[in-house]
């Protein structure tokens, strides 16, 4: 049974890993706000469990076993978020911190039942894919709204951050997943956008547009 600390490390690795399944020790230290010696000590333990391949002064390489372990923790987190929204009536802006606590429950049966009650969802409330029971993840082909061109019409499919401040920002502007967005204007100077959706016009900064994933 993995400890809470180990699970937090695994989840951080999952979110930081690049296309080569690698993570720098510095990035992991910053993500967890933990000093380098402690991070190095934990990663050495992970290497003994064959979750990572680790050499001094080189990036951490997540193994297939490590990816599965990390994916299963993310699965618990995202299923919990979906359950809180769909079955308990929480707003998508209020579920992350609760899921952070519940994801450490060590009962596969509990989360399998949650999955069944939700009718096996593929995405969480923020549009992130939910790994299956084997840790497999199907990543949808999405792009940032900031990459769209003028007069292009797209659908908001996901957000890159589930921070309460950002989701409240979207709530105040009546913008949710599944909304059709048309790009009316894109400023050359700062890449900000004027967009149209739900019979309203809004101006979004590049920072906001970078956090909206569309298809």
TrEMBL record:
Pfam families: Fe_dep_repr_C, Fe_dep_repress, FeoA. Keywords: Activator, Cytoplasm, DNA-binding, Manganese, Repressor, Transcription, Transcription regulation. One of its GO terms (cellular component) is cytoplasm. It is found in: Cytoplasm. Its main location: cytoplasm. Coiled coil: none annotated. The keyword Transmembrane helix does not apply. Residues 1-63 form the HTH dtxR-type domain. In the presence of manganese, represses expression of mntH and mntS. Up-regulates expression of mntP. Belongs to the DtxR/MntR family. PANTHER family: IRON (METAL) DEPENDENT REPRESSOR, DTXR FAMILY, TRANSCRIPTIONAL REGULATOR MNTR. Homodimer. This is Transcriptional regulator MntR. It comes from Epilithonimonas hispanica.
């Amino acid at each position: 049974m993995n400890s809470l600390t180990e699970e937090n490390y695994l989840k951080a690795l999952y979110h930081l890993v690049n296309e080569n399944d690698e993570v720098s020790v510095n990035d992991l230290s910053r993500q967890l706000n933990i000093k380098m010696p402690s991070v190095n000590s934990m990663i050495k333990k992970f290497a003994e469990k064959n979750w990572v391949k680790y050499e001094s002064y080189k990036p951490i390489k997540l193994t297939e076993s490590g990816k599965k372990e990390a994916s299963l923790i993310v699965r618990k987190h995202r299923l919990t978020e979906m359950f809180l929204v769909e079955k308990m009536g929480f707003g998508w802006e209020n579920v992350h911190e609760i899921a952070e606590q519940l994801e450490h429950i060590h009962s596969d049966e509990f989360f399998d039942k949650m999955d069944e009650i939700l009718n096996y969802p593929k995405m969480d409330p923020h549009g992130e894919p939910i790994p299956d029971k084997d840790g497999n993840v199907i990543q949808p082909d999405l792009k940032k709204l900031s990459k769209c061109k003028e007069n292009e019409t797209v659908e908001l499919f996901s957000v890159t951050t589930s921070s309460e401040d950002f989701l409240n920002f979207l709530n105040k502007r009546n913008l949710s997943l599944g909304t059709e967005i048309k790009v009316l204007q894109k400023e050359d100077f700062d890449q900000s956008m004027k967009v149209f959706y739900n019979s309203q016009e809004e101006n979004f900064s590049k920072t906001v547009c970078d956090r909206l994933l569309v298809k």
